[in-house]
Amino acid sequence: MPSDLPHYPHLMQPITLGAVTLRNRVMMGSMHTGLEETGDWNRVAEFYATRARGGVGLMVTGGMAPNREGGVFPGAAGLFTAQDIAHHRIVTTRVHEAGGRIAMQILHAGRYAYGPDCVSASAVKSPISPFPPKELDEDGIEKQIADIATSAARAIEAGYDGVEVMGSEGYFLNQFLVTHVNRRTDRWGGSYENRMRLPLEVVRRVRAAIGDAILIYRISLIDLIQDGSSWDEVVTLARAVERAGASVLNTGIGWHEARVPTIATSVPRAAFAHLTGQLRPEVGIPVITSNRINTPEVAEGLIASGMADMVSMARPFLADPDFVAKAATGRAAEIAPCIACNQACLDHTFSGKLTSCLVNPRACHETELVIAPAAPPRRIAVVGAGPAGLSAALTATGRGHDVTLFDRADQVGGQLHLAAQVPGKEEFLGLIDWFKTMVSRAPLTLRLNHEVTPDDLAGFDAVVLATGITPRAAGIKGEDAPQVLSYREVLRGAPVGPRVAVIGAGGIGFDVAEYLTHHGTSPALDPVLWRREWGVTDPDQARGGIAPEGPRPEAPARAVWLLQRKPEKPGRKLGKTTGWIHRATLQMKRVKMIGGVSYDEVLPEGLAITVNGAAQILPVDTVVICAGQLPERSLAEGIAALGLQCHIIGGADVAAELDAKRAIDQGTRLAASL
Ligand code: FAD
Ligand code: NAP
Ligand code: SF4
Known about the structure:
Helix 14 links the parallel strand 13 and strand 14 (402-406). This protein is of the alpha/beta class. The chain has 22 helices and 27 strands.
């Protein structure tokens, strides 16, 4: 595109919501970062101000509790005192100084509140919480509405441009809407008119509390649970919420207890945006679409085709705070992509850790991980262009060091190329492309197809050894037989028989099992296939969008046994928010997962194993070893002999439990200190 033409013209067009005109149609959706709970308000302010400087039109904060019983967890942040309001004012002031706009989300968790005082429409426990909620009486309901309205008024006092009322994802307001949770027979239950009384009353009272500020209502377009809302109900609610005073409707997808993935990397991009498009002609206010939108191309296409008036992206702003500024100035290829892995964001949130980002370790660490110019600049060799070496090389170059980056392969990316072969992990290709772009635009020397020896390193001031790992052998009798392959060989395309034993059920064992049971187009790239696989339909076909015929996955391409020695269910150490998806996918592909296995011998007729004292031979044609990894740092001694300073990072440092998150974080932090 010639540079004098506007980039992403639909996305970059201003839009007016109530009394506020936004500079473009990109919203950073709400994310719980954990920053507010640190009590370091400078840090909170810097997180949001960094994104405001990056050009986003509107931001929504993480959910703020309206009262103690509605907090997602005990001690969840909210605007309870004058001091809280003063703290939030630090954030809004900094954002406004940076030219941004920010709304505060009010999140009442209802029965998802992780504590014994949680409340809901009826005393129906959620399958994802140990705490049964208390059924609210009339006074109790009035208290919740009043607390939400008070919270909204305090948000405006704190300087926010508006509020978002969280009405989706199965939280409090959503719970009143469906008979699945709302079993009441009073004026708050029974008919749909009664069930939507609570959200409508909340919107009316919030509007009265905030004057003409922005009121976003996040509406659940597809609940993805049995007995969820019908499409008629969704439209009825949307129109009523508009009449009650909402300025804009934001899209919510799926309750948290839904057994359908909604934002993981294996979900096709913009998989649910058509539902926002379906809602748009039904209402007079703007609609915002969301979920698995991570590039300006996709976002622009959604606005240009009339699916939505605005696009909400959340995690992409962890990966790159400058998403909008780069898109607007023709530098979209430089946008660090969110690969929807959840590894450093949602997995952290659910483990009580501060949110960050696999791709951008500075996310939520803006004030602590500072990349300052190097004094004095030095000549640095980085050996290995996997994620650890790439991050170190780019960060060091950004600081002014004179960097040479070596790899023996013909392209950068290291093991990310193997990850990208796994169906549902195609987003890794975007990460590799981004690294390639950044390396090509950085003033560093790249030497590919170069197997480094210590002699290459003489003359450098320091060496960063990022040579990764070597796969570990399993040490099984007969492991050198031709039908035994390593995961590297398999993912690089080695022929594999129709019956396979996978030895080792860590992240790589699971990925290899998915790769081997799959054939044809990846469902992540084909929304129709994906919806069939997970049993999803549109809510105008079935309540909640749950297909009556259930999931209909493609038949597995091979019979696979996934084995581990630990006497526990395979997959326990997979990601907190994504492990269930991998387990469910393999179950759908009829993979037999067995723990407590001893490996006896690889035989021509199969793999001899013993489980619970019983010996058996699995009748497999191929055995794939995914038994973990060992550090590859054979150059270290030679470098030491040269008397050079040598820093070892990534898999070359510690192979156990290594992932790209640790590799990138370590590479970035090391280079920030060199
Ligand atoms: P590597 O990526 O191994 O890079 C090392 C580089 O050093 C290589 O490019 C190699 O060619 C080069 N090198 C080695 N020796 C020399 C030498 N002497 N001279 C020149 N060059 C040399 N991680 C996640 O976080 N999430 C995932 O979902 C995920 N999925 C995965 C799926 C699969 C199938 C695999 C195999 C891995 C996956 N990983 C995942 C792990 C992740 O890819 C690794 O943790 C990460 O790549 C390690 O980074 P690294 O830079 O330390 O090493
Ligand atoms: P891993 O997670 O450490 O798993 C290794 C597996 O091999 C385990 O199941 C282990 O279980 C088994 N094993 C270990 N030694 C063995 C031996 N001598 N003989 C037989 N089995 C043995 O390592 P990985 O699967 O190689 O993955 C490497 C890293 O890549 C992981 O740490 C992970 O973080 C990362 N990764 C992440 C993802 C992701 O989605 N986040 C995906 C893929 C990879 P037993 O000892 O019980 O048999
Ligand atoms: Fe996206 Fe993964 Fe970063 Fe989360 S950790 S923002 S999912 S790239």
